[in-house]
Amino acid sequence: MSTWEIAIKSALGRIEVDLPKLVAALGRVGAAKLPVTIEHTLRVRALPLHHRDPFDRLLIAQALEEGATIVSADRAFIAYTVPVLWA
What we know:
Layout: H1 2-11, H2 19-28, H3 38-46, H4 54-66, E1 70-71, E2 84-85
Parallel strand pairs: 1-2
């Protein structure tokens, strides 16, 4: 999801990024690929509307389902019961 959102923002000119280099760097640090599952989508539906961005809501749902930490400077994530690194 994260690279999907980055690719879209890059295509829209909102950010400048070399996506192949970013993906390679993620591989070097051991970032795992996480598919979107039915359980993730069910969790999205159950989330309160503290955050309206659909990409971020799916990331929150994935983190809650998988016991993962969100890495983001977006303070809106704090309203959920998900660990946040950086906000």
